[in-house]
């Protein structure tokens, strides 16, 4: 027994020794290194860039959508082939988009230095731009170098953002925002200080809501923001108007009947920009919501009366705009319910009412019992002038808003609406209506108009960050013309030479969207 016990102990000791030797031969697991460290200074999602004291946050979304009976990716059928109500229009438009944003922040002895970048990659259904040919060939917009007779979709140009474009497979690349913030200053491409915090979307997905400003794609600016505490801030800003904040300055000498019926009262005589827009803003943020007041000044700078500088030019005139915005939270109808409303008035600064994605030319066709078809047309400008005349500033006013109700943590519905009016001075009306472009008009000539929009959207969020939505929008063009007008053929929309009844018009759109935020 003693011998057996000795043998067992000896064997165990040998195994332990062998096991120890083998363990010593194996690589030792190093202590875990914290390659990525959470940065808690600026909220959730920030991490330190390894080896630096700069924090970074990545974000974005991926979106897939289809718009039915819409003008492009998701607009109203207000002009061009979209509003022709014939075989040239796309009855649906599909889009896929990826958004990527990068937010970096570094604490310094002067305060936080922040940079922000937001880019989008988009592919959208192409648009019809031709009227066919004798061989039946159709043409679609695009930059891929295909022969027009190929009868095919040749590009994705309706997906361009900020003027960029791609080909059939490449789609489009755009930059929304790219700015630096330091010591109260904002420098670069960002949302205008004039805009309400919800920009163009008080409760909607529809892109062309009128009744206020909205630099959805950002505007280049140099801004100083002062924080007075207690939720009170104020900003003074100079911003570039060329991309977002100017419409047409019409020279009525260039009017034609076909142009008028397309919503243009002459040649657009915008000259080079000489002054940035000047913007001021005051905001109060509280637990109950927020209130914001904004003002803007806009220089209207026209080119020449004729083809050369020797013909002279009208003197500049400054326009202006004012906007009030109100958001009310914690309302009794439910947790998270909110009401967002804003109102605006402009004179010689119409883009502060008809925001950058809103239509500024309207040419909508419909049925008629007294003529070939009916048409409703209208146009938005900053100013109008005639031969050797002064600038006549265009006045506009409007409002928009939405009420959003949360049924439960997964479902919500918003009711929204907008309305805007355009009013031309007596002199401008005389220049427009006195043109030979209206020689065949039998009835009332009045370029003033209103546009109204109302919609409903329902969203379902089954899991955090993933939302499915359906957004229905109805629009009504209330134009002030009456009677009939006879025109030559409107070739861009395949309309024949005929007499058309002048009449208010209606349209509607439906957007179905799936979006994953991350």
From TrEMBL:
Record's keyword annotation contains Amino-acid biosynthesis: no
Keyword ATP-binding: no
Annotated InterPro entries: Porin_alphabac
One cellular component term from this protein's GO annotations in UniProt: pore complex
Main location: membrane
Topology in membrane: Multi-pass membrane protein
Signal peptide: 1-23
Keywords (A to Z) from UniProt: Cell outer membrane, Ion transport, Membrane, Porin, Signal, Transmembrane, Transmembrane beta strand, Transport
Location(s), subcellular: Cell outer membrane
Matching Pfam families: Porin_2 (PF02530)
UniProt GO molecular function: porin activity
GO biological process, one term: monoatomic ion transport
Domain of life: Bacteria
Task of the protein: Forms passive diffusion pores that allow small molecular weight hydrophilic materials across the outer membrane.
Family membership: Belongs to the alphaproteobacteria porin family.
Record's comment describing the protein's domains: Consists of 16-stranded beta-barrel sheets, with large surface-exposed loops, that form a transmembrane pore at the center of each barrel. The pore is partially ocluded by a peptide loop that folds into the pore lumen.
The protein's name: Porin
Lineage: Bacteria, Pseudomonadati, Pseudomonadota, Alphaproteobacteria, Hyphomicrobiales
């Amino acid at each position: 027994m003693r011998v057996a016990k000795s043998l067992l102990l000896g064997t165990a000791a040998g195994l332990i020794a062998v096991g120890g030797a083998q363990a010593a031969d194996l690589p030792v697991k190093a202590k875990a290194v914290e390659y990525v460290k959470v940065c808690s200074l600026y909220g959730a999602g920030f991490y330190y860039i390894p080896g630096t004291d700069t924090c970074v946050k990545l974000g974005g979304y991926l979106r897939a959508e289809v718009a039915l009976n819409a003008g492009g990716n998701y607009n109203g059928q207000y002009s061009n082939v979209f509003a022709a109500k014939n075989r040239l229009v796309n009855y649906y438009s599909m889009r896929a988009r990826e958004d990527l944003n990068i937010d970096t922040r570094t604490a310094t002895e002067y305060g936080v230095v922040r940079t922000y970048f937001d880019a989008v990659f988009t592919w959208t259904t192409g648009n019809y731009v031709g009227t066919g040919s004798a061989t039946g060939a159709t043409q679609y917009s695009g930059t891929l170098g295909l022969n027009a007779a190929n009868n095919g979709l040749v590009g994705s140009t309706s997906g361009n953002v900020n003027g960029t474009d791609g080909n059939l497979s490449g789609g489009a690349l755009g930059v929304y925002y790219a700015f630096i913030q330091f010591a109260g200053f904002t420098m670069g491409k960002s949302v205008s200080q004039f805009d309400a915090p919800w920009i163009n979307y008080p409760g909607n997905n529809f892109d062309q809501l009128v009744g206020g400003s909205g630099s959805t794609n950002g505007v280049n600016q140099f801004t100083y923001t002062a924080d007075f505490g207690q939720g009170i801030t104020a900003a003074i800003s100079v911003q570039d108007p060329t991309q977002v904040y100017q419409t047409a300055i019409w020279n009525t000498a260039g009017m034609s009947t076909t142009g008028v019926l397309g919503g243009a009262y002459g040649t657009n005589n915008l000259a080079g920009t000489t002054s940035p827009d000047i913007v001021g803003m005051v905001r109060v943020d509280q637990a109950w919501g927020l209130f914001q007041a904004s003002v803007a000044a806009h220089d209207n700078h026209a080119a020449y009366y004729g083809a050369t500088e020797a013909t002279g030019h009208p003197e500049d005139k400054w326009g202006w705009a004012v906007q009030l915005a109100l958001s009310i939270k914690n309302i009794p109808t439910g947790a998270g319910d909110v009401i967002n409303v804003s109102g605006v008035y402009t004179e010689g600064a119409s883009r502060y009412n008809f925001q950058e994605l809103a239509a500024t030319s309207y040419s909508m066709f419909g049925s008629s019992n007294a003529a070939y078809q009916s048409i409703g047309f209208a146009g938005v400008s900053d100013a109008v002038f005639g031969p050797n005349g002064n600038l006549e500033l265009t006045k506009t006013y409007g409002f928009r808003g939405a009420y959003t109700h949360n049924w439960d943590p997964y479902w919500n519905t918003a009711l929204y609406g907008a309305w805007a009016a355009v009013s031309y001075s007596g002199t401008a009306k005389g220049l427009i209506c006195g043109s030979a472009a209206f020689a065949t008009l039998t009835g009332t000539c009045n370029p003033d108009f209103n546009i109204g929009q109302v919609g409903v959207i329902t969203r379902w969020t089954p899991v955090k960050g993933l939302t499915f939505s359906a957004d229905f929008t109805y629009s009504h063009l209330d134009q002030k013309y009456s009677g009939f007008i006879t025109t030559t053929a409107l070739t861009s929309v395949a309309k024949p030479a005929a007499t058309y009844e002048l009449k208010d018009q209606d349209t509607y759109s439906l957007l179905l969207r799936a979006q994953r935020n991350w």
